[in-house]
Amino acid sequence: MKNIDTAFRHVRGFTLLLIVGCVVICCFALYRSFNLVSQMQSKVYILANGKALEAYGSDRKDNIPVEARDHVKTFHVLFFTLDPDEKAIQSNVTKALYLADGTAKRAYDDLKENGYFSGLISGNVNQTIVVDSVAVDINEYPYRFRCYGTQQIVRPTSITTRNLLTEGSLRNVSRSDNNPHGFLIERWNTIENRDIKTVGRR
Questions:
Q1: Where are the transmembrane segments (predicted)?
Q2: Which of 64, 82, 110, 130 pairs with 93 at a CA distance of 20 to 30 A?
Q3: 176: Cβ contacts below 8 Å, ≥ 6 apart
């Protein structure tokens, strides 16, 4: 009887240990499966020129500085890149105004009222901008920014280089085809826009 009782306790202990081990293994397998599925869902495969490229998804907060700088740069390039063509000017400015609030629209209206765009067209002048840097402060919302750029105004007889400094803030909005970064520039203001040099053309 003693041997039977001892054997029963051994079998019971072994059975309990086996059950606990199976539960631990099942929990670990479930955890690893969910972890692997979430990692796979964050991967995207892009087909470009017959090659599959792997891309990773991430939270927006990880990309706010990069997206904010690109949003500001895109707006300035569209707003200040002007050719002596009314349709080209209208197209660029329309795209730019999707990225900003009424302050940019007022600036455009002021330039139009003062005959700036008409002067570009009649004088065969084209204007380009190179955005040197964009500083964005993401520690406080809405995010404040400053944009430093260099404009080049090409006239038939001369080329003028100008220094441009603007500031404003960025507010989160819904992403769309017209606003892929999901930001809106507010309280946009030009701090400095002065000539650096003018050289003659041959």
A1: 12-31
A2: 64
A3: none
